[in-house]
Specification:
Largest sheet: 5 strands, parallel
Number of strands: 5
Mean pLDDT: 72
Low-confidence stretches: 232-256
Oligomer: single chain
Strand order of the largest sheet: 2-1-3-4-5
Amino acid sequence: MRVYILALQNRIYFAEKLLEDIKNARIISKPFVDETVTEIATDVKRRIAGADIILAIIDEKSNNSVMFNTELQLALMESRKNRNKMLIPIILDDVAVPVTIEDTLYIKCNSESEEDLEKTKLKIVRMMEHKRYIVKKQKLRENKSRTSSMVILTLAIEVFAVLFIVLLIKEPSFNIGHWDDKGIMISSLVGIMTTLSIATLSTSYLSIMKRRRQEDEEEEIEFYSRRLKRAIVPEESKQPQNNKSGNEETKKEIDALGRMMINLEDIKEFYTWSQKQAKASFILAVSMCISGFVLMVVAILLPVVFRLSFQMSIIPAVGGAITEVIAGTALIVYRNSLSQLNHYHKALHEDERFLSSVNLLGKFSTVEARDDMLREIIRSEIQMNLAVIHENVKSDSSSIKENSKK
């Protein structure tokens, strides 16, 4: 989020200190050098208009500053005009609250207290998170309204196309066996309307599914990033420690855990990709199978029901055969994706078994028993890994021998 700092020159550092640990906070305000009053006013308006958060530091001196009060009035007008902007006034050292912001949510802070400073940081973070939630909710409402409009438009086009075809069939002059200029024109209109309706329906469906997939991916990535950050940098590591050896051990644990979580992130990306591939291939296989069956039925009905020549049924028959081949290929891809997912779940089960065994070490009463059991767990894990490697090498060698015989 873009943050504009509204403060006197001696309070700029204090405002930057409040924002230094806040993620995604980018300061867009900077001191003015060799600029006229008109240029400064124009630049201030532009920066306030482009800011998402306006952080106002109010102390005793700022109440007597004409330029500060002018900027504060401008910030108030912008925040009231645009609900996506947020004005966060910070009242320092029990200074009297200005009349202009009495109806605004503000934060009181003692500039000399480190504890009060940390509390103020936490309040700012919560307000920014609430702001992000509101903006995200507004975007979601806009997307839902667009989706509803698109669905209504699609249904209207579909209903119009169906009514047009029904009225055309009921027309007394409608004859399948004989086509004049009027019939060709009507059939062209029917084809155009049908194509437009199918294209509109497909576009609506794809856009809705794409939007939902993007929303799900954003929520999943945000949730996974929070879990990853908590795992890599636990709360205990943030507290200062006096023992140097303890610091080194904690750093090694965090580094090892960080590498593990990076690997897990790669595995999760692979798992998500395999899951989407399996779902997409299954949907493609089912749709292609149904489409191929419909084309086969059309190829049979053309010479029987509509009294057309068998040559007219060759095109849908060939199309149905090609569609069924595509469906079979998609089913093969689906089977391979399922095998990859089964491999992932098997590896996950092995990791859970190892971690649960390590977790049970805390149940032992003595340190010697824990060390002995930990050695046994590590030994059994190494033996299992060696057995798996030996089995893989054996299967690879047998497959190579079979290929050489062929």
